Amino acid sequence: MRRRYVINGQAHDLVVTRGANGVFHVSHGERKFDIQGKALADGRWQVTVDQRSQAVWIAAQGDSRFVHSAATGAIEVEVIDLSAASGGDRAGAASDLLQAPMPGTVIAVHVAVGDAVCVGQPLIVIESMKLETTLTAPRDARVKAVHFSVGNTFALKSTLVTLQDL
Amino acid sequence: MFQKVLIANRGEIALRILRTLKGMGLATVVAHHAVDADSPAVLEADESVELHGLTPVAAYLDIARLVEACRRSGAQALHPGYGFLSENAAFARALDAAGIVFIGPRPDSIELMGDKVRARSFVAQRGFPVAPSAIEDDDPASFVERARALGAPLLIKPSAGGGGKGMRIVRDLAVLDREIETARREGERYFGDGRLFVERYVERPRHIEVQVMGDAHGQLVHFWERECSVQRRFQKIIEETPSPALSPAQRHAICEAAAGIARAVNYRGAGTVEFIYGAGGEFYFLEMNTRLQVEHPVTEMVTGFDLVREQVRVAQGEPLGYTQADIAQLGHAIECRLYAEDAAHDFRPATGDILCWRPPSGPGVRVDAGVREGQAVSTAFDPMIAKIICHGNTRAQAIERSILALEQSVLLGLTTNARYLTRVLRHAEFRAGQADTGMLARCADELRESLTPGDIDLVLASAVLADRELLRAVHAIPAMHAAMGPWRN
Amino acid sequence: MKRIDSRIDTASEAFRRNHQAMSAIVANFRERMEITRHQRPPHEIKRVRAQGKLLVRERLDLLLDPGTPFLEFSALAACEDYNGEVPGANVVTGLGVVSGREVLIHADDSSVKGGVWYTLTPRKLARLLDIALENQLPVLHLCDSGGAFLEELSGVYIEGGRVFRNQCLLSKAGVPQIAMVFGHCTAGGAYIPALCDYSIIVRGTGGVFLGGPPLVKAATGEEHTADEIGGCDLHTQVSGTVDYPADNEAHAIAICREIVAQFKPATKSYLPERDAEPPYYDPDEMLGIVSPDHRVQFDQRELIARMVDGSRFHEYQPAYGTTLICGYAYIWGYRVGILANNGVLFSDSSKKAAHFISLCNQNRTPLVFLQNTTGYMIGRNYEMEGITKDGAKMLMAQAGSEVPKFTVITSAAFGAGYYGMCGRAWDPRMIWAWPNVHMGVMGPDQAANTLADVKIAQLRRKGNEPDADEMKALRQRVYEKAERESNAYFGTSRLWDDGLLAPVDTRNALGMALSAASNAPIADPRYGIFRF
User: Fold this and answer.
1) ipTM for the complex shown
2) Can you give the residue range of the structural domain that contains A121?
3) N or C: lower Cβ tally within 10 Å for chain C?
4) Are residues A49 and A118 in the same domain?
5) How many domains does one find in chain C?
């Protein structure tokens, strides 16, 4: 599997596959090495890298692994799952269509076509069933189109504002 | 005689004091903030009292509540440790008024030495060496002129400051006015006092301090010197004794000067007189700390005395019972301060949970620590985790033992300066005994972390083996496919 | 189980000659594979990159579990059609491992002509989905196609329907499918993600629509961009046609991998019974055993010895029906029943085959057919013995089998022997041919001679004498056409098999196939009427 480990701010991308007899094959860029681990009685791990073994202390917490060996001292390793959502910060990141969450009427429009807006900036205020809602920009963008003006009514999921890249 | 002592401190020093008190057969109470409820000192003490405050630090500074805590617990004496209220004259007086023995010096000694300008003046008047200086208070109008007259390089210091805070070095007199204004503003902002004094700055200064102990009967001895030149951001991280900088004659001169200064104030209890020592062998009084210092263990390791025990005995009114001739330096001791900080990023404090703590052990190794596995380290307090003190027959042996002890110290869960300390111990300048207070800044590049590819492989391998999710995914591949590997037809 | 005693002399002249010739054939095969898979005009690569897309095999590298095998099907589909301009028929299909799960993959290759569908394209996809249905394997679709090739509409029209029908049946059978929309899914292609259980679309480049911008403009006069008609946000937010929006291709693949990890674990109808063991003899020696001339006989036991675990083989009826070898062996730890031709099929070998096939069905042993036959024996005596009905019994047993069947044609496959030994039409779970193979109703020589004989007889009936040169030219023409149409590449181009294999790759291909096939249950066998 693919994994990114960050040590001292430097990213190391690894590919780990299974070998025979508890050995794992690790690919690190052009370099390949075999590793094996064995738990020791005193709580340490004997970690073998290509036949060279050292005893280390390992602790884990959340996305961090802490490793101590006599040679390296304590090193923190941050684990990043490359298979997890890369790109956008949340699944299904910001989109360019601002949709009406309910049918209603436009009571205020704060932007015009061509305006640059930043994330969170109020774009349009709608009223529906006595509720006033301000819709804000989901990301930094430019206003491509405003589809309704003050006083217009619209249906559920109508696209009220369309954004585009800055 | 008192039977019960309250410790108004935390962490390693609270535990260290506690152990000596127990050894003396005294009952112990530890006053603590909730955040320290599970700390080793609190758990080992006979009793504990919870303190409250807007912040954890504020809790340890609450004079009224501490006095109350003593009363309620029946403690007849209080040991303030270092930092917090240990050099607070008002606190000492409040305890006196409440009939509780303050294990420390007299309030007026604290007051005198707490005012850097007064202290300096006092010391100079009695003929002890002080750095050429210009004190603003003497004549505010001519202050800047007098400062300029000292000649570069100069050190601007806030009168109310201490511990290295707020100091500015001026090498070019052209900027002196500007630097003075800045220092004044900072003094007002951080210490509530904009008064300044200016000293001639000693290039490549070394920090030498002398441990003194006086009883209530007029006897005072010194316990020889400590060198604390290895500093980052004006804070000591490695201390040792004896100082490799001093010849026997110089040692004698400095220690006698320190003892003389302490005698001049009729000092009672433990104290440390700090000096700046220059390359030419000149030394100047810097300040006197009227409390037990963090680095006192190195003195204990070479002299064989328990300084906390002596403090308690003096507080109980006992005479010292030993003379200067009874105090010798045997071998060499080095203390390394293990801090929760990131040496790679300007030593910024590190936080996290202590997932694994295995202190070192071995011949000549002493560890003063106040942490527990599972403890959370936050920025609420000073980030010192432990002190690792190593004694050797020679300086070289003490260095080797210190390096080994640091390598064997296992602290996982947050970044520490352990590896940084070993790099300093290995550095040629330190090994040659030539470190000055500017060494760490000057040698920053050489002291940078460098991991070999083999080191990185080992760390990556360990991370993989501890990565349950990764191993689960790797094992999810059916055996035959794993054995076939990346075959393509 | 006893190891096969190999009688091959690797130092002999015949061995060395075979090895040299066969190595050249294999080298040529590997080169053609390399070109088909990777050689693309630079301007096409540039176009793909400019669109912000990855190449199809780059997507597979991110999708498949690292360090796992991938068995590609019909890589050389369309290699002898469409002027060789449509590598692999513009799709990559195969069997691999994703998130620890065996899955089938359909990946459009838009690096040639935008990945449009020729007639062979949906045929290749329908075949993949047939494999999915028969083996109950999930399918991952990596969609990125320009739609039907406008000059092949009629072919695509009919073949395409089968793809969608198979998708529906796969879903009906409870087998999951996931679509990742990297490019366009137009017209019929839009149904691919719509018929999947899960679908993911890449913002900006992905689009799903029954009609694209030009069609919409032509139909209604409306002018919209592809994104506006059926892009990511429209389908993931408004219409609900696609489940997951993705910011980029790597993100889409990552989401797919996570979904696969949630599939319920496969239920296996059989498992490896032993630890795998590589063959005792060197598989490379197969190249010296087989002659490039399919008329030259060799002992298939020697091939078996270089394919199965430990070269161990338990031969059934070793003394009877000796032109067909039957026996048990293990491949990658899976027990298999092997039938391998050592010549023409006779009555006894046909009956032996039928009996052995029944035994394997009874003890749930998958069958492996190693084909090298010129058919069933002909002649009066053989007819009197009942060769026709004995062949029929073999067909009946083979067709009634419920255990998985796998076929590898090693040298020759002519006549009805190809049928009896589980040819394409008889639903082997997977079928492959080696690149040296020749197959057809009859061999090129036979075809040329037979047609010449018929022509000569025809002329003579009309009272004419055949012209020698004309006859020679006729023979030559027929021979060449038959030769061309009987070689392995011709067949693989038309999807008569699931791909060509280099001999040394056969063992791994069978291992993967056996593992994949175990995802489907095995019913009790039931046969039709045996004409006794």
Assistant:
1) 0.91
2) 97-164
3) C
4) no
5) 3
Q: Are B113 and B345 in contact (CB under 8 A)?
A: no
pLDDT in tens, chain B (489 residues): 789 999 999 999 999 999 999 999 999 999 999 989 999 999 999 999 999 988 888 899 999 999 999 999 999 999 999 999 999 999 999 999 999 999 999 999 999 999 888 898 899 999 999 988 888 888 888 888 888 888 888 888 887 766 566 788 888 888 888 888 888 887 787 777 788 888 888 888 999 999 999 999 999 999 999 999 999 988 899 999 999 999 999 999 999 999 999 999 999 999 999 999 998 888 999 999 999 999 999 999 999 999 999 999 999 999 999 999 999 999 999 999 999 998 988 888 888 899 999 999 999 999 999 899 998 888 778 889 999 999 999 999 999 999 999 999 999 998 999 999 999 999 999 999 999 999 999 999 999 988 898 999 999 999 999 999 899 999 999 999 999 989 999
pLDDT tens, B66-79? 999 999 999 999 99
Q: How far apart are CA B257 and CA B283, in angstroms?
A: 10
Task: Identify the CATH number of the domain in which residue A49 sits.
Answer: 3.30.700.30
Report chain C's mean pLDDT, rounded to a whole number.
Answer: 93
C505 touches B at CB < 8 Å: yes
Is residue A88 in a domain? no
Burial (CB count <10 Å: 0-12, 13-18, 19+), residue C378: exposed
**Where in the sequence is the domain holding C474, given as residue range(s)?**
442-485
Q: Which of A48, A71, A74 sits opposite B416 (nearest CB)?
A: A74
Q: Which chains touch B (3 or more CB pairs under 8 A)?
A: A, C
Residues C300 and C392 in one domain: yes
Does residue A59 share a domain with residue A105?
Answer: no
**Structure token pair of residue C247:** 């910011």
Min Cα separation C138/chain A (Å): 20
**CATH number of the domain that C491 lies in?**
3.90.226.10
Residue of A nearest to C261 (CA): A83
For residue C58, the model assigns a pLDDT of: 95
Query: Which residue of chain C has the CA closest to A163?
Result: C233
List all chains that touch chain C, counting a touch as 3 or more CB pairs closer than 8 Å.
Answer: A, B
Contact A157, C238 (CB under 8 A): yes
Q: From residue C244, how far is each of C130, C201, C203, C233, C234 by CA, in Å?
A: 27, 6, 10, 10, 12
CB atoms within 10 A of CB C158: 11
Last residue of a domain, which of A80, A105, A131? A80
List pLDDT tens digits, range C427-479. Answer: 999 999 999 999 988 888 888 888 888 888 888 888 888 888 888 888 888 88
Sort B192 into a burial class: Cβ within 10 Å, 0-12 / 13-18 / 19+: exposed
**Do C456 and C379 fall within a single domain?**
no
- A150 and A108 housed in the same domain: yes
Mark whether A57 and A22 lie in a shared domain.
Answer: yes
The verdict on C247 and C390 lying in the same domain is: no
C62-85 burial, b if ≥16 CB within 10 A, otherwise e?
bbbbbbbbbbbbbbbbbbbbbeee
- Map out the domains of chain B with their CATH numbers: 4-103 (3.40.50.20), 132-200 (3.30.1490.20), 206-442 (3.30.470.20), 452-489 (no CATH)
Residues of C in contact with A88 (CB under 8 A): 247, 251
Total number of domains constituting chain A: 2
How many Å lie between the alpha carbon of C254 and the closest alpha carbon of chain A? 5
